[in-house]
């Protein structure tokens, strides 16, 4: 993940974005309005092939247009999406929306006037005509992307003292390592031989980083079991007892380190007012739908990095009594939980669109299942509305999540029984929530 220290200057991000837009307008002859309307979802659903990628546009400015990108063009847009757009998104003011658009200004709002963007780009590179600009303009491509694609024309402009997003390739490489060897609580670190076989030459650095990530995860794992429902600081003796049960041979956190890693529950979550707003409008920053094709269908991916414990979205649906939920057992979208006062409740997310958000697809119900490598978990919360508290279930990041990663949580049972046997699901999920931890490990 890109840290604040590695963030490129916003002027570089803007130039890079303008260059990407110009490529689509000039080289692919798309109307400026169609480029402005270009959706993240269309990008995520692109079809990759050996030669590049194919994007189908559905916006009113380009309905039905198919854009065929070369490998270089695809990796350039991917670099914008993964490393530049996500920074703009993180700068977005509360209450604003990216409207699912691909190209965002540095304030995280959709770019509107692409015509003036083109003019500014021309001014910057002093080209005579738009047609010539393409050939004449040096390509302001971040170093990470240039090295990734290898054969892009042009060099970064000499005026730019700091090539933007240099960290990109390193970050990507670590992501690849992490997906080859998932960091889980009980996994063994990969051996030198396994690393070499998977094509990772920098074994040592990633090995250490892997162990570091696992150590963090293990602290969280123990804390999740040691901390009570109210989130109070656990007792050292409890932590020691839980730690003693684990058979981890090496990379063991000490009980004292685990105590230090504890955080009061409030500091971990997003500002409560913003959360209420997001729940009400069902607008969640940094998420997009992606079609994973036959068999799996729609899922949700991150379009900005999320930190461990950050709120992702809620499990939105009709809140009913558990008894009513039991009567609706044929639904695959029931979520049973125990409310603060002890009452058994159920969220039914079957209806799509829901009665309260007509015309919208809801993220929460689209999160797919993973038992072996989940990165999100469900958490029961009480939201304090002006007219009184209401129970809700939210998803939080189980670990740091990178741009482009699919959000996955452990339903507690297999997808099949999630769809077919609500009773088994409800028992497992009640267990999960009452334990205050996921069953993923
Ligand atoms: Zn709704």
From TrEMBL:
GO molecular function: histone H4K20 methyltransferase activity
Stretches for region Disordered: 144-169
GO biological process: regulation of DNA damage response, signal transduction by p53 class mediator; regulation of transcription by RNA polymerase II
Signal peptide: none
GO cellular component terms attached to this protein's record: nucleus; polytene chromosome
SET domain location: 285-412
Superkingdom as given in the UniProt entry: Eukaryota
Biased amino acid composition, Polar residues: 149-163
InterPro entries: KMT5A, SET_dom, SET_dom_sf
Entry coiled-coil feature ranges: none
Protein name as annotated: SET domain-containing protein
Species, as recorded: Perca fluviatilis
Record lineage: Eukaryota, Metazoa, Chordata, Craniata, Vertebrata
């Amino acid at each position: 993940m890109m840290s604040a220290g590695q963030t490129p200057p916003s002027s570089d991000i803007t130039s890079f974005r303008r260059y990407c837009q110009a490529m689509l307008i000039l080289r692919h002859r798309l109307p400026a309005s169609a480029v402005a309307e270009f959706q993240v979802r269309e990008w995520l659903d692109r079809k990759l092939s050996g030669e590049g990628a194919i994007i189908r546009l559905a916006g009113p400015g380009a309905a039905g247009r198919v854009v065929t990108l070369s490998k270089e063009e695809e990796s350039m847009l991917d670099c914008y999406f993964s490393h530049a757009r996500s920074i703009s998104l993180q700068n977005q003011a509360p209450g604003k929306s990216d409207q699912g658009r691909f190209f965002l200004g540095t304030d995280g709002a959709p770019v509107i006037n692409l015509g003036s963007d083109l003019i500014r780009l021309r001014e910057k590179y002093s080209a005579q005509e738009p047609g010539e600009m393409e050939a004449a303009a040096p390509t302001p491509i971040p170093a990470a992307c240039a090295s990734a694609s290898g054969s892009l024309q042009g060099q970064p402009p000499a005026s730019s003292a700091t090539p933007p997003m240099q960290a990109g390739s390193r970050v990507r490489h670590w992501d690849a390592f992490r997906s080859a060897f998932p960091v889980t609580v009980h996994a063994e670190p990969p051996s030198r031989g396994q690393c070499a076989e998977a094509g990772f030459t920098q074994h040592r650095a990633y090995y250490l980083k892997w162990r570091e990530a696992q150590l963090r995860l293990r602290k969280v794992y123990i804390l999740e079991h040691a901390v009570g429902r109210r989130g109070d600081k656990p007792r050292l003796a409890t932590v020691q007892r839980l730690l003693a049960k684990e058979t981890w041979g090496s990379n063991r956190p000490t009980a004292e380190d685990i105590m230090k890693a504890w955080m009061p529950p409030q500091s971990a979550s997003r500002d409560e007012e913003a959360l209420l707003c997001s729940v009400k409008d069902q607008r969640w920053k940094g998420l997009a739908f992606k079609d994973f094709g036959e068999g799996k269908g729609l899922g949700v991916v991150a379009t900005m990095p999320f930190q461990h414990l950050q709120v992702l979205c809620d499990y939105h649906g009709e809140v009913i009594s558990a008894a009513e939920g039991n009567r609706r057992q044929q639904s695959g979208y029931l979520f049973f939980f125990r409310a603060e006062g002890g009452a058994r409740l159920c969220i039914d997310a079957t209806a799509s669109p829901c009665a309260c958000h007509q015309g919208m697809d809801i993220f929460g119900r689209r999160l797919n299942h993973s038992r072996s490598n989940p990165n999100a978990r469900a958490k029961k919360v009480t939201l304090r509305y002006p007219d009184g508290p209401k129970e809700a279930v939210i998803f939080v990041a189980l670990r740091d999540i990178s741009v482009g990663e699919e959000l996955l949580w452990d339903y507690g049972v297999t997808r099949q029984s999630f769809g077919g046997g609500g009773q088994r699901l409800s028992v497992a999920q009640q267990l999960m929530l009452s334990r205050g931890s996921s069953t993923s490990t």
